[in-house]
Amino acid sequence: MHVFVTGASGWIGSHTVDDLLAAGHTVTGLARSDASAAALEAKGVTVVRGDLDDLDAIRRGAADAEGVLHLANKHDWANATATNASERAAVETIGAALVGTDRPFVLASGVAGLAEGRPSTEADDNPFVGPDSMRGGSENRGFDFVDQGVRTIAARFAPTTHGTGDHGFIAAIVGAARQRGVSGYVGDGTNSWSAVHVTDAARLVRLGLEQAPAGTRLHAVAETAIPTRAIAEAIGEVLGLPVTSIDPADADAHFGFIGRFFGMEMSATSEATRELLGWQPTGPGLLEDIAAGAYSGVRVA
């Protein structure tokens, strides 16, 4: 299959591209910089130059492909409005390019805010609808195209897709620990995060592209619920720092942007995903990754 990938040089995207190529697919990737383009070309990927706001480039890439993976996101936490708007516009552009083709369109989503008081499941509807909602309501907007002949699939990622080289949420928490001299957790630290190793997530995305029916919600989740206090303790152990509770009112000041997320319950299961695709995670767990030094190279931002 010829697959167009946005975010092809990013953390999850680069591993997914490697998995796609190993499985025999051909890949075209969106690249906004010379360095990203060179890295993709070195793998044998055809490059379309452009960024997430270059809707013409995204349209061309999607129209010429037999399947699309949308893994890019600006992640500009200081300007959520612009981030959400670009995400929604990209999903609408890809969906429109695939109307009537029955081609697969896998879009990245998340597990945050899907359920209260329990881990979320694939059966949970995404409550975020409309351009002003989280991620611009992109999951539900993508599913709007199912009735127009697009095989849309949502890949809901755990809050941490971890591994050596990760610069996401766990890296931000490690950076805050180095900066503050303590490894903190919010409140009593009993709220939990789900987690998945990046290689397992990449394989799941590829399997979803190949096999999942239209309208499927997939959970890229290997570990259902890791208490955030346990995450802080693992970070403190590997960095040789004391571990302490941070008052929720002080979380943003202590952690930076990640404070608003580290105090949230973001747990999820993946039983339905595993049964549908025969997917079994094999990578190390989050605490194992931290203990092995996967984040030892992270420095204060």
From TrEMBL:
InterPro entries (alphabetical): Epimerase_deHydtase, NAD(P)-bd_dom_sf, NAD(P)-dependent_oxidoreduct
Protein name as catalogued: SDR family oxidoreductase
Residue stretches making up the NAD-dependent epimerase/dehydratase domain: 3-81
Disordered: annotated span: 117-137
Lineage summary: Bacteria, Bacillati, Actinomycetota, Actinomycetes, Micrococcales
Segments forming a coiled coil: none
Pfam families: Epimerase
